[in-house]
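ENTRY TYPE: paired fold submission
RECORD: A
CONTENT: sequence, then structure tokens
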Amino acid sequence: MKIPTLYVILILILLTNIVIADTTFVSGTVYGTWNSDHSPFMVEAEIKVPTDSCLRIMPGCNIIFLGHYKLNLDSSATIKAIGTYEDSIFFSATDTNLTDSSGGFYGIRLNHSAPGCSLVYCKIEFGNS
């Protein structure tokens, strides 16, 4: 039985949209909630949580830095990255060469952040400040 070409093309388009929809590219100001439905979060430039705002990262999220960028919290900002034993949160980088100052990612900066910041069941690898 032959499958009409139109059906094959439609299936390929649907599969492509599903794969692309699962990746979120971020840069600049970030806040709100990041869910695993939109993971991985690909960091294309420095990101910051603005003053008096909160970034919540839910279990199962992967945050991947595409360059030597940092996650910075402005004054009185909070981050709540609370994973679980079964479903951790991963912070990583595409450049895993830590032999110089340009490899990895530039870290998570909590300077002057608000009380109550939490990173629970998070794996942070290839940080290089």
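RECORD: B
CONTENT: sequence, then structure tokens
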Amino acid sequence: MDAIDHETHPIHLAIGCLTYFPWLVWEIVLANMDVAKAILKNNSSVRPRLMHIKASQVSEVGLVTYANSITLTPGTVTLDVEGQDFLIHSLTEGSYDGLLSGKMDQKVTALELDKGGPMITQQPTLKDPSENTLPKPEKVT
């Protein structure tokens, strides 16, 4: 009955979260300081721009975690997600450079494929919404 799986209850991510979430909180603090400094100094580091990034995550949980982590970080917002392609708005040079470095992408990928969870070949794949995923009813006699 697959009522509990790695997508609806990603318990396999619990151990990786012990290192990922403190790192994310620190990145949020650094981004807050970057945005505040740019606003208070009224300097040229405020350079809003849109950028496309290709995510390396293979599961929906990984992609959602990455997109939400970007949006939680001040100075960046995930505007659109199509498969593994993200459209992101960045406010400052620091936020732009941070996304280009790919460090957050690597951290989320490491979280997604933590040793306690399924390997890449076992990760659920993204489903096409046009596919009918409902099981066929069984005949009761």
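NOTES ON RECORD B: Confidence is low (pLDDT under 50) at residues 115-120. The chain has four helices and three strands.
STATUS: closed
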